[in-house]
């Protein structure tokens, strides 16, 4: 079942697709007759698409192609009635393929490109490997994607050490970096525990904030306040529901490891990373590029885990360049 809410002036539609008990919300914005549609998978688990529908990057991209912002099952404005057992990576991948089929039917003949950020990168890879999505897609864009949690944790530890020692030698935030380096020195990368993984994630965001080279052009407190005020779902409810879904997916997400299967992905792919992403290091993108038959890695030099907000102009130009290349 599909519900459609349309806007005026350009393409501005909100669709709700009922799939396996979930009512999946998809917001589509862009030119009236788009040459391509980029379907966006948000981060998390527990995130939402409206956090991405802000800032200059989406204005630039939507001036040329449409962007379909999907709220994943149990997240954002998506709703439904289903069991906790239905909240799995395989189910979310099937949901994603169903949304792509909907876009295919709604915009016949229009090329589709799938893009996933962070957790959305892992979900996008699962969708490519486990569903019929590759037959629908002209391209795949992974942005700082967490498609192999064990490997990204292993790669984060030496990054903490090398960058931390360089920052300490430069006399920058010596106390904070000393704590991060001390933690990294105590991690056995061959036996990373759940506590190690949690602390790597937390220290990753902290480390990025300590790097003066990382640009913070957008996505600050004012932007977040604007997002919460304009959210289509009351933000306390959105956060509670998202956190519940994150808890349901937590164990499976932590076990996610698709590196050994990446060679099966023949879809033309752009792997776009921030050079100072400690949460999902660019080394994971380089590893993925070496395994995939048709993939290009681009590393933005002044970005961390969210390059769409760190370097929005470079991010948008890279996205649009790839999209136009794969649809020509």
- Low-pLDDT sequence parts: none
- Based on the structure given, which CATH architecture of the largest domain is correct? 3-Layer(aba) Sandwich
Which homologous superfamily in CATH is the superfamily of the largest domain?
A: Alpha/Beta hydrolase fold, catalytic domain
Large-scale geometry: globular
Radius of gyration: 19 Å
Report mean pLDDT, rounded to a whole number: 92
Q: Measure the end-to-end span.
A: 33 Å
CATH topology of the largest domain: Rossmann fold
Number of strands: 10
- The helix count comes to 11
Instruction: Indicate the CATH class of the largest domain.
Output: Alpha Beta
Largest sheet: 10 strands, mixed
Number of domains: 2
What topology does this entry show?
Blueprint: E1 2-6, E2 11-19, E3 22-30, E4 37-41, H1 56-62, E5 66-70, E6 79-80, H2 89-106, E7 112-117, H3 119-130, E8 137-143, H4 149-169, H5 174-185, H6 194-209, H7 221-230, H8 235-254, E9 269-274, H9 282-291, E10 295-300, H10 307-310, H11 312-327
Parallel strand pairs: 4-5, 4-7, 7-8, 8-9, 9-10
Antiparallel strand pairs: 1-2, 2-3, 3-5, 3-6
Helix pairs in contact: 1-11, 2-3, 4-5, 4-6
Label this structure with key terms.
single chain; 328 residues; alpha/beta; Rossmann fold; 10-stranded mixed sheet; 11 helices
């Amino acid at each position: 079942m599909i519900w459609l809410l349309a806007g005026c002036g350009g393409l501005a539609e909100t669709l709700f697709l009922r799939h396996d008990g979930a009512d999946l919300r998809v917001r589509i914005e862009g030119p009236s007759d788009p040459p391509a549609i980029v379907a966006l998978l948000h981060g998390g688990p527990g995130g939402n698409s409206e956090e991405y529908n802000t800032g200059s990057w989406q204005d630039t991209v939507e001036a040329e192609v449409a962007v379909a912002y999907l709220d994943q099952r149990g997240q954002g404005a998506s709703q439904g009635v289903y069991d906790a057992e239905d909240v799995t990576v395989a189910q979310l991948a099937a949901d994603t393929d169903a949304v792509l089929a909907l876009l295919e039917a709604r915009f016949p003949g229009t090329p589709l490109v799938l893009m996933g950020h962070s957790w959305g990168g892992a979900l996008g890879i699962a969708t490519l490997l486990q569903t019929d999505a590759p037959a629908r897609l002209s391209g795949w864009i992974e942005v700082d994607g967490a498609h192999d949690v064990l490997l990204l944790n292993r790669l984060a530890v030496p990054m903490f050490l090398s960058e931390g020692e360089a920052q300490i030698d430069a006399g920058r935030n010596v106390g904070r970096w000393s704590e991060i380096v001390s933690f990294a020195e105590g991690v056995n990368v061959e036996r990373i525990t759940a506590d190690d993984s949690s602390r790597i994630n937390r220290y990753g965001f902290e480390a990025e904030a300590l790097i003066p080279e990382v640009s913070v052009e957008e996505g600050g407190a004012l932007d977040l306040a604007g997002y919460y005020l304009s959210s289509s779902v009351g933000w306390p409810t959105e956060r509670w529901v998202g956190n519940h879904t994150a808890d349901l997916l937590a164990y499976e997400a932590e076990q996610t490891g698709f590196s050994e299967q990446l060679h099966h992905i023949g879809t033309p792919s752009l792997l776009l990373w921030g050079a100072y992403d400690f949460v999902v290091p660019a080394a994971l993108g380089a590893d993925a590029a070496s395994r995939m038959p048709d993939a290009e890695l681009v590393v933005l030099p002044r970005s961390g885990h969210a390059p769409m907000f760190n370097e929005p102009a470079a991010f948008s130009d890279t996205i649009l360049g790839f999209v136009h290349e794969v649809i020509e």
